[in-house]
Amino acid sequence: MHWQHASGTLSLDKPRIFGIVNVTPDSFSDGGRLTSVDDARRLIDRLVAEGADAIDVGGESTRPQGATPVSADEELRRVIPVIEAAVKDHHGILISVDTVKSRVAEECAAAGASIVNDVSAFRLDAEMAAVCARVRVGVVLMHSRGDVADMATFTHATYGDDPVREITDELCVALERATAAEIPAERVVLDPGIGFSKRSAQSIAALRELDRIAAIGRPVMVGVSRKRFIGELTGVTTPADRVAGTVGANVAALDRGARLFRVHDVKPNREALDVAWAVLDGAP
């Protein structure tokens, strides 16, 4: 399977890792750590050296407690210099922008981003799908409910006996939004939204039954890195210390059909996923 994006095609013949670069003051585990473009450049240098296939730049937090939406102007002020620096420093590296705003998506695409990672799956901005179609980016459509302020809380974590069916159905609706905007299916990746509008048991169910989401027929990305459910399972309270749990969840997701992985800690995940892939021998 391949994923088309604005600058070409990414083969999914092996696990692909997106390194997280949050240029926000309030992200749940790394907010405020990058206070300048030079800080971001050093982090990107390290992520690329450790084996990242792409860099995912975010300028608005969706943290579980107290996320505050920001204006498009402020989000662009945070992310555009970092995207431009990444393009300059690492020719050919894929850049993704994590945003729910069509204006941010469009201007980031002009600055060199090839992928738009929309955690609202085109729900929150009526123009987003049309903009993504026009600039021909690859898109990640992530399952969530609610808005930026509450999508990572439990406010909308109301599911029946089969939460994976509801998640799958809502991702199919998101895929229909992309199709209606004439975004080719080959440009779409789906993300179950682990930790977003889901209690831990629901996130674990989504990972356990990830093959049902993969059966929709699009590549699957997972973002489990340092998430709350890992802390609840392991007793590790500091998000940055949840590396081992993150690796375990990603290997399980690989076995169930995920091919794209969004992580803070590239090196341990790169090594674990490559070894797991060799053992699986490329089996879906």
Tags for this entry?
284 residues, alpha/beta, TIM Barrel, two-stranded antiparallel sheet, 10 helices
What would a concise description of this structure say?
The chain has helices at residues 37-49, 72-89, 102-111, 128-135, 163-180, 200-208, 210-214, 228-234, 243-255, 266-280; strands at 2-5, 8-11, 16-22, 54-58, 94-98, 115-118, 138-142, 188-191, 221-222, 260-263.
What would you note in describing this structure?
The protein has 284 residues and is an alpha/beta fold. It has a single domain, classed as Alpha-Beta Barrel (TIM Barrel), CATH 3.20.20. The chain has helices at residues 37-49, 72-89, 102-111, 128-135, 163-180, 200-208, 210-214, 228-234, 243-255, 266-280; strands spanning 2-5, 8-11, 16-22, 54-58, 94-98, 115-118, 138-142, 188-191, 221-222, 260-263. Helix 5 (163-180) links the parallel strand 7 (138-142) and strand 8 (188-191).
Structural class: alpha/beta
Distance between the termini: 11 Å
From the 3D structure, determine the CATH topology.
TIM Barrel
Supply the number of helical segments.
Answer: 10
Number of strands: 10
Runs in which pLDDT lies below 50 for 5 or more consecutive residues are: 26-31
CATH level-1 class:
Alpha Beta
Helix content: 40-55%
Largest sheet: 8 strands, parallel
